[in-house]
């Protein structure tokens, strides 16, 4: 089986405290560490009711202190809200504090509703960079690849006489454009199959990436839950529909309920095309889930699986991590 990793959004239920939800993220990461998972990435969201991962850099550092071998990182930092220099400074410092176990994945999505996103952007309005500009600056800062005339040339981070001169960078995405952008930047890809579950689109993205950057790492984040042990079905209830909002310029936002869509649209004057979709969660016993993964990887081009478990059921999530461990 391919290497397996985890994407965790730190879900929280209406009956939980924040500390309880965060404790479950820690327990899940420690279990993954014990079972030989490759990496554990934590998401960034703002002002959402059902997830509380607002600061992936802080949660990353805490999880690094609670684990021994697992790579930990962001999945991802929403780059539009920050200056690339600050991000690189943070992740270089964490990498030096953790025996070089840090990964940096960045995303294009806003990570929240319009109201909070406008607040996050307030101080950036006068000197606003596009995502593409920020992404290029971030990658150049990571490797110190500037000519002498650049204002960024010679800037120092925590990496000085280090065993590693940079941290691994990944771009989150579901579009062909994002995959090509990652390949041209020579960084890894984390493809959100839980958002775009079209097999043909995945294979087109794989071929586009590998033809441009054969040695690059293409990770596929899949919505998967082991919901049975043998013939015994575990308690499992989840609405498998979601809503996709597409702006006029092609930006995509995925929401879980119609109420969330109404709330989102009430906070903006922008026009969106709203499409109801079915989230195709891969579920069943261990053998059934692994068989489905084999079908998705029928061209044998995927480098790594990343489990996205979109259900706030801690016992079910822990069972899934145990059942799909790389050693099994």
Automatic annotation (TrEMBL):
Signal peptide: none annotated. Residues 7-215 form the Luciferase-like domain. It is an enzyme of class 1 (oxidoreductase). It comes from the Bacteria. Its EC number is 1.14.13.107. One of its GO terms (molecular function) is limonene 1,2-monooxygenase [NAD(P)H) activity. GO terms for cellular component: cytosol. Keywords: Monooxygenase, Oxidoreductase. It holds the Pfam family Bac_luciferase. InterPro entries: Bact_Lucif_Oxidored, CmoO-like, Luciferase-like_dom, Luciferase-like_sf. The keyword Oxidoreductase applies. PANTHER family: LUCIFERASE-LIKE MONOOXYGENASE (PTHR30137), N-ACETYL-S-ALKYLCYSTEINE MONOOXYGENASE (PTHR30137:SF20). To bacterial alkanal monooxygenase alpha and beta chains. This is Limonene 1,2-monooxygenase. It comes from Staphylococcus simulans.
């Amino acid at each position: 089986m391919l290497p397996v990793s985890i994407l965790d959004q730190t879900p929280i239920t209406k009956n939980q405290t924040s500390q309880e939800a965060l404790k479950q993220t820690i327990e899940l990461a420690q279990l993954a560490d014990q079972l030989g998972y490759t990496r554990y990435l934590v998401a960034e969201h703002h002002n959402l009711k059902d997830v509380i991962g607002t600061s992936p850099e802080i949660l990353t550092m805490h999880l690094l202190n609670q684990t021994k071998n697992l790579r930990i990182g962001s999945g991802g930092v929403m780059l539009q809200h920050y200056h690339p220099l600050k991000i690189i400074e943070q992740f270089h410092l964490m990498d030096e504090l953790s025996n070089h176990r840090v990964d940096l994945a960045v995303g294009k999505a806003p990570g929240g509703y319009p109201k909070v996103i406008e607040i996050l952007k307030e101080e950036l309005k006068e000197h606003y960079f596009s995502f593409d500009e920020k992404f290029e600056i971030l990658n150049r800062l990571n490797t110190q690849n500037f000519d002498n005339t650049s204002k960024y040339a010679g800037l120092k981070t925590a990496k000085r006489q280090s065993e590693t001169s940079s941290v691994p960078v990944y771009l989150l995405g579901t579009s062909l454009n994002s995959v090509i952008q990652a390949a041209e930047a020579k960084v890894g890809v984390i493809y959100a199959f839980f958002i775009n579950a079209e097999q043909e689109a995945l294979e087109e993205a794989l071929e586009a990436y590998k033809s441009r950057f054969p040695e690059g790492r293409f990770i596929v984040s899949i919505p998967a839950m082991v919901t049975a042990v043998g013939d015994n079905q575990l308690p499992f209830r989840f609405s498998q529909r979601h809503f996709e909002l597409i702006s006029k310029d092609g930006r995509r936002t995925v929401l879980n309920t119609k109420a969330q869509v109404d709330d989102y649209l009430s906070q903006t004057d922008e026009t969106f095309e709203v499409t109801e979709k079915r989230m195709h969660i891969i579920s069943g016993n261990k053998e059934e889930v692994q068989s489905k993964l084999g079908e998705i990887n029928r061209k044998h081009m995927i480098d790594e699986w990343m489990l996205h478990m979109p259900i706030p059921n801690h016992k079910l999530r822990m069972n899934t991590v145990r059942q799909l461990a790389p050693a099994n």
